[in-house]
Fold these 3 entries.
Entry 1:
Amino acid sequence: MREAEEREIFQNAVDRRLSGLQENPFLAQRIMNAEKGEIKVKKKLTMSMVLVIVLILIAVTALAVALLSPKEIVEQVAVPVAQSNEQENYTYEDLQNLLQTLNENGITLDEGSTLMQAFKAGHGYWEKDTIDEICRTAFGRNQGIWTLEQKHWYGEMMKAIGAWGINIWLLPEGEEITLSEARALAVKTLEDAYGAELPAESNEDWEVYETFELAWQPETDSYPRENAQWTVWFSRRNGGSLSYDVTFDRFGQNAVPWRASFLEHINTKDLGTVMDDLEEREGTCTQWSLETWAEFGNLISDMEIKSQNEWLYQHAGYCLPPEGAISAEEALEIARKETGASGWIGENIICCICNDRPIYKICQRVFLDGKQKGGRYDQVWCLEIDCMTGEVLDVREYTYTPDNNPMMMYVPFSLLSGVPSFEKEPDSMNSERRILTQAEKESAYQTEHSAASIYFLPLEKQAELFGGFHTVPSREEYDKALATAKKAIASRYGADALETLGDYQTGVMHQENSSVETGEPQHVWDFMFTTDPTYLSDGYRVRFRYPANEKSGEETVLDLTVEHANLGNG
Amino acid sequence: MSNVKGPDEAQNPDFEELVAQYQGSVLRMCFLYLCDKTLAEDAVQETFVKVYRGLDGFHGQSSIKTWIMKIAIHTCYDMNHSGWFRHFDRRITPEMLPEAAVPFEERDEELITAVMRLPIKLREVILLFYYQGFSIQEIMDSLGVSQSTVTGRLKRGRDKLRGLLERRDSDA
């Protein structure tokens, strides 16, 4: 009896305390393949073994390494598979093969990444984001500090899988200045401008990195090489908040120096810019780790609040789980059991504070048929779980309806009812800043109001800024198109849908171009009805086109699409 | 696991299912034996390579689990005696344990580190007896030692773990 008890205690202790040892899901397959002579089974090496091997190799001679690099795996496996897919995502089997290849070559992706979570749950994953994760694992989480070659190569891979139309990340050629010349020029410019003594290459005090990239030319709606621009950054390491950057053209002309204390810089940023910076480094916010959310919370803690969303983010109290909290993986498991969601499930988890209580905020995005695809999710579940006890405090479904605030995915539910109102801040894109009044709200065509989204710039301003196909239609055309859009919303979402939306504004983009099918000229309309022009967090979007030689009207409308404006927020 | 046969019908156990069923247990045992995560992973791989190669010759003379664990313990033994091992820092501290994926108690960690600090000959007997649930006879067969050797090592190992293997009120 005593023996059985002791065994049970022993076994439980080992299984619990060593539960973090990760089994290799590909081991059997690897061994079978290896035994059949298809691959070599690679032995992992400890740091000590590596050191010994390195010493021996140095003493003897260099040895050719037969393993594939992450770049080779992307080029030889990830991209060809993506190119042969009609979908934008790898299937589970694709992903399994890819991960196996990575594993066989000694490359391990972060177990906590969204990609690996999707895989563990038996799902595939987006091709672009998968390649992205491999590259971030290989080159560093922050894309900004990748070398020019790495960035350019990454752009080529994105182009190859169709994720990018063009590769904006360039390598200098011909008469264009070289990397070393660019860095030297940046050092000189900053010394002249600020008296700064900066190194031309990264050292223990400074991190130096750069991009050489194509810039958009609004007049022609293109990215000509003549517009290529260098930016060289100098970022102080180890707690320093000082940073510099210099931009200049491809021949080193028109240098513009900039100095910023990072914290001051943050204070001058809006929330969107902070998010952009973090997303550049860590991927979209649905991929962020608990650490990144906590960092985000710190960065915006002193930000001047200008909108409801900013207020919500700032008051969410993003933090790391306190000592003694259940793990994120356990919380996710509790959430899975709670909702019982099935199919393809994308999950993200945040730790924040709700009524002085640390909670896990979990969002499950579900495709019921098990296939990951674009567009709206079939279900979006938001859960709040006590960090310490694992108790499920609240579960709500986000339903893409105007009465649902998409912020419920990212902040405690309790905050949503207490958010104060903020006066809408006009966007700085328009020098004639003016807040749209209720009376003007339906006159996007003729108003001078502005907003963060280009939809809410007057059509004249759009045409002036963007040129190309962006033109100003007649008032009559606009009114008819507006009526068509409203009718479409009423038809799909109900006659009172717009009225229910409340104090909404109407934004629109209009282009005249040629039909792909017939080559005939056509008008293309894209309307946005929302109370939140900055983030498009509510309301509706209506798109359609009709031949230019016909008047806008229901009978001639083609490709009419009506959807929620906040489609991307899920 | 339907393809995994018992000792008397073990002619064709499915290799993939064997790996799925026993990999975790082998990995944890190898870790406790070798006190190094990467070496343990190597040992697991090596173990299952041997299992794969030996499956045809396995005729159910013992249970399949006993057979696999015997291979694992011998693999660990071989690695422990290899030249590489002499280069390693062998101090055992709780910090060298991998992060746990589920909640654990403080004394779980105390027990694990105490086991890892045991002399290797005591450790292997303790692992086979307590973790793998082997009988004295199975340990004798696995290690090729006499009954008195096994029981003697088991007693000494148990003495060193005294207090850590007792059930407490919270376990009830």
Note: Confidence is low (pLDDT under 50) at residues 38-48, 56-65, 261-268, 424-452 of chain A.
Entry 2:
Amino acid sequence: MTLIRRTVLGALAALPLAALAPQAHAADTIVLGEVNSYTRLPAFTEPYKKGWQLAVEQINAAGGVSGKQLEVISRDDTGDPATAIRIAEELVSKEGAVLIFGTFLSNIGLAVSDFAKQKEVLFLASEPLSDAIVWSKGNKYTYRLRPSTHMQAAMLAEEAAKLDAVKWATVAPNYAYGQDAVAAFKRELSKLRPDVEFVEEQWPPVFKIDAGSTVRALEASKPDAIFNVTFGGDLAKFVREGSLRFLFEDRDVVSLLTGEPEYLQPLAGEAPEGWIVTGYPATDITTDEHKAFADAYIEKFGEEPKTGSIVGYNSVLAIAAALEKAGSTDTEALLAAMEGLTVESSPTGPFTFRAADHQSTMGAYVGKTGLVDGNPVMVDWSYADGADYLPSEEEAAGMRPAE
Amino acid sequence: MGFYFAQLLTGLANASSLFLIASGLSIIFGVTRIVNFAHGSFYMVGAYLAYTLVTMWSGSVLGFWGGVILAAVAVGLLGLVIELTILRRIYKAPELFQLVATFGVVLIVQDATLAIWGAEDLLGPRAPGLDRAVRIMGEPIPEYDLALIAIGPAVLLAIWLLFHRTRWGVLVRAATQDREMVGALGVNQAWLFSAAFVLGAFLAGLGGALQIPREAVSLQMDLSIIGEAFVVVVIGGMGSVSGAFVAAVLISVLNAFAILVFPQISIVLPFVVMAVVLIVRPYGLFGKPGSEHGSPEEPDQPLALVSQRSAMVMATAVAMLALSPAVAADFTMILLVDVMVATLFAVSLHFMMGIGGMVSFGHAAYFGVGAYGAAMAVKFFGFGMLPAMVFGPVCAAMAAIFFGWFCVRLSGVYLAMLTLAAAQILWGVTFQWQDFTGGDDGILGVWPAKWASSDQVYFYVAFVLCIGGIWFLRRAAHSPFGYTLRGIRDSQTRAEAIGINTNLHQWMGFALAGGFAGLAGVVFAFSKGSVFPDSLGIAQSIDGLIMVLLGGIHALAGPIFGAVAFVMIEDWVTRLDYWRFIFGAIILIVVLLAPDGIAGGVRRLLRAVKGGAA
């Protein structure tokens, strides 16, 4: 019995050896490694995947980068940082990926960024919002595309400062994203309006909000306005319980990310009206670049683009621009190219990766929620350029650990 | 005053939701002794089906309630199908083995739901006629909350009548108390089990369906409810429906008031309450001694000593592993390190469960403490890699000594749930205490020392620690200490009668297993370079549990088989679309082919081959 057991064990241990030889890729392709939480958070990562697929298809159809075709090898990180690192390693050393991009959850983004630093490979954090990725835990090998928690909170603080409200209450999911968002909003709003005070904060566990009790706790503090960071299923519950219990009557609500179609559309006819939000008004954007993108996207996938789509699309645009500028796939050359890299034309307008803190200046749309024909949309929106909501490059560089 | 009364009503409405799902779980456990992980999946499917039906017939009162009931009935039928095709075949398997099958079902249902209803959250209509709030003592209370407050006790009453006024109910209660006697009296157990499972699934489906007016239906519903449902069942006492009701009210009302004072408390509150209740009342509020164990089973065969030939084979296998860096590529080393870490973790859990007879649902606590201990030693005390690698397991063993002291006083599922509570409390502290542990941003930069930084060298570091740990635990199982633990496992009373201090031995066994889980955690931390609260989360504990049970709890090689198979299969399937479905299906196939675990299956296969040859 033991004999077979050990033989089987030995055979299993040797199994990966069979797949030893590095995968042969044609010399005229550039392999990009991609990791994201496809099974854990499909509602956000599916549109993102479609976004980068479209960009890769378009770039390859137009002749690729420096005459080479792009090939993305995409893997599911199962929502676990340890798995994400194993996959990143495999993408780099087995698949021959020249860089890694992707990730949605902040802890996975941080884990992969630390891996990138250790293994000296470029990592473009597409979706995670955590400020730590570029600031307190930033490193030489990691760049981030999406406007961060701080930037989006600062955009909302600017709007919030224009309100008469003085007494504010906050509600945010109890983890780093929620905590960072509330801290940034408080800091920025207090700068603009030293007279405001924060009278209540609620910290429901993420995806497990006890909405009725939370709403009542907020109500009890009688705030003039509420800053909301809950999203997804928590947001739906919060909106339902809140409107049933008149929490939003005669109160301003400022809400992070709620204008993104991923979060707004599931609310359907019950979406609150007049909330000040950051988000993405999708097909209402009429710039030529965005129209071309949206038309191609709808043509290919039969649905409107979401925030994830634009992030995925812009990720590949940025990578293509970096490869073009670097003229090689060598990591040092790519890092040099990423510093201060400007993508001149994207559906959301031009954006630059700042040399000092590796954050892109891609912005977000700030506006109000509204209902048009019973469908939730963003109204009165405008594009907020990310560059205007970032600390100066010197200040940002000072927040990063010494290399 | 009005404010507090309204807060109480809010808590009671939540209690009704929680009670519906917990009652079904409690009935299923009481009768069949199955720890049903798939209960959350029934809840989620109930919600999705109700969403479809209620939206289809939207607007009418009859359409809403008809849709809710129909969805619950459909979930009951789904439960019947699962019971007949899978669970019925494995009731004779070792204790808790059915849990692996329900885990497979969870994976399959997740992907099936995604395929049918899509990724986006779905917001159903509100209940017609109950879509507003009424003022009570000046405070707005949603009408639907009031309806829920009535539905909870009504369902409790219905279950009570069913159990006390029908012959079937009498049989269910009898089976909850003594299954063998019920069988001996000629009652068709198979039929009784099916019916109890269907009733449990129906209640879970009803619980999910009734959430439609309150929340958006989402793919996270299954896992977000299951932990709390178990907590409620355990606080109430396994198998006690009225206990589940009291516990649901206790948890929900406490939460409604606690968040007024400590807004952050929600993440650990249920587990703190459970820990306190179990320490004071080891069988929950209304549980009875004897309700803690799974199906009665044959005592284990004594562990056989290894023959000389097998020892040589083992040595060859280990040598092959040792030589693999010569031929394998870097990424293979990484995978092999993951395999070794998982194997040591599973072996340490098996030492506790298989040798010590103490089931743990929270073994990740010690894995995580080991990992965090090492990471913090590096970050705060500037330890090098090797001292940190000593420090981590010591921390883990200390934590195990602390929590073990409470845990070994309990037994069976209650012990398992107290280990879960301990793990969740540790997780909550790690998650919340940002300044110290980094919160969910974790601790970064925990990479191996310069000399060990190449994948090959680190492979050997991991090899020495993991294989050494596995070897040590194997020796411990055959040592006098191991014999004593096995004696206590097989009969606590007889062990006590011959003068063994059973609590002390179990406590030390717990600490030893915790220390080696910590060693696995340390190797893990340095191989990944960062630690996050996930490493002490429920998912990590469950993975270990599945590895041990799937491998076969009655053999020392079981956890090794289980861990290697689990990590390898997972690494392979995650490359495919709908991999959770495939993974779940593989688990179910293994479960059905080898109800005694992979080790048992291999043993039978070998016997058949030998028999054929002779």
Note: The CA atoms of residues 360 and 545 of chain B lie 8 Å apart.
Entry 3:
Amino acid sequence: MTDSVAASGDNSRDNAITDQIAKALTEATGLLRGPQRVVPLIQRLVSDKLRVTFEQRHLYSYATTKRSSGDALNSLLRWILDAQRPDGGIAAYYSLLSGYSESYPEVTGYIVPTLYDCARTTGDDDAVVAVERATQWLLSLQMPMGAFPAGLHGRLRSGLHGDEKQPSVFNTGQILQGLVRAHVETNRPEILQAAVAAGDWLVKMQHADGSWFGPAAYQNVAHTYYSMVAWALAELSERAANRRHGCSDHEHSLSYGLAAERNLDWVLSHFRPSGWIDGINLRGHPNYLHFIAYALQGVLECGILRQRSDAIEAVAKSSWVLLRKFETNKSLPGAFEPDFKNGQRFTCLTGNAQMSCVWLRLFEVTDDLRYLNAALKMNEMMKPLIPARGGRGVFGGVGGSYPIWGRYQPLRYLSWGNKFFADALLLERRLKRSFEASAFEALPCAS
Amino acid sequence: MRIVVLCSNVYSETGCAMAVRMAELGYVPAGALALPTLDRGTVVRKLGQWGARDVIRYASAKLIPHRGDGRAQVSNPYLQPLLIHGEGVFRSLREVAVFYGFPVAVCNDQNAPDSIARLKEWSPDLIIFTGGNILRKQLLEVPRLGVLNVHLGLLPEVRGMSSPEWSLLNHVPVGVTIHYIDAGIDTGPVLQRCEFPDAARCELLSDLRNRLIAFGVEQVAEVVAGLDRGTISASPQSDLDEDHQFFVMHEWLQARAAARLTKRRSVAVAESVNG
């Protein structure tokens, strides 16, 4: 989720602050329109205050909960299904002040794989219906050049959430992920066509150094977290390679793969020896864990698909720094200064869930159980923060920050937070099963 | 050889057993420094490590006098030979101190200036750490030889926490390492590392830990005697990067480590039956 981070286009810090204040005031007026939201708001503020005040952390501790992963997963899925708007898109967030936002194309795109995985795991047919509606809506949004628009659907104002008429590299990449998966699941040719058009546009927009900047990039500058786009291109390359119906598929596959690796090389050149990744480049905002984790996820997944051990090693190094911080302090700061210094006190729940995904994938590729251990504890810590009661928009929601008034997306439950935490729980479930199976085989047999 | 024992609290069985073992060996401690029993940090840590039920059980065993031979008052059965004596059972370090005649001091922070001053008064050649704070440089510089730690895993393979469990899951032999403490986590020079021969006899992780603690006390005794005779010297660890550091293990993985222990035991039993 990029474009929901508020910032004025002209990048001055003052403008950004003014913009944030304006946004907060606008959102606060939502309470006047929906006074029924006052009680859930107060409940959440009080419960987070109590939790922050009384939770005990020491070196031997980690958060535990009786809530099962299956139960948490069901409630996360329910939240996503509830957030589907009449047009078929998924809302960006539910604000405790102003209620649901408009549909958000970017998240609607990359939530597609999550919905398919959830449907398979939980057997919930509603998820399949929802994902088909979402895909149909996405197809209707594609611009003639193959790109997808920035911003929330229906918001024409530029700046706050990007300009809807403006094609967006990042959103196109995120939606491409969903299209590739939707095609794998349905084999519908129009979905592949849309994916190829999106992929072609991304390749065309890429600069020689492997980055994307200019009008189709957020704040017009290149960002290392656009490695998520590289991941999507690498997936498209795999898909095209698997089809291999003709010469053109093969050429397409090559061009997407090369574009993905060009970006991968560019992002890797921004990794510091400390593990820090330069080039997050969100002017007027701190380096939220969400974006650091994006960069890591993109590089890792692209590295796995392209069999680039240098990428996996770079991610492992950075992730280890974060793992140590998490294991020592029992939580991860929501934002950092360069070299992972001066971590802020709030926690970015989306970033936490993403790091859980990164650690789980690293466990999968390295067999290092410490990654699995950290991810299990992270998921355990997250589960009690998901409301087990409440109305639509609250029940099963993943807050922007913990405590809920933290700096990242305060007083909101985020669809992309739900997506990543559901991904983390699904991965946890799959890897636990494969670990059990392999551990059983590895043990010596008495007979 | 002048020895001082550091403990997490005066009711620490490991601390008591270590002091007794040193006294038996002829090195009656010059003193023992413990953290307060009702120190908030200690109580919270123990609650986190053991759970409320075990903390209450432990506290009642130590604080309420029992009839009988005292076995019920020793939580770790493998320390009973050291803690049960002719006249009863050592329930606290104070009782050990009265029996052998050495001073016990309680402090809020083992690194605090008054604690350092107290340690300097005892002018130890060696400090044996059985629990307490993370030790700072000023304290580490007090003893002539250094501060000894018993690590319940083989170094450098398994550093940090939940070492027996990580050893089981990573197919590293279970064992203990006696090493000097330095500024890092389990990175100090190693005096002795021993694989634990009875791991296959353990059914539960708690049983394995208890046995390792008792085994560690014996290894320290060997090391102290060796240092005194000049037959043991420390070797720096070869691999000091962070790759071998482990953190407290999640209960799901602990259950897998426990299953591995049970499986090992059944294999060992089957092998002994088959001859």
Note: Chain A has one domain: 34-440.
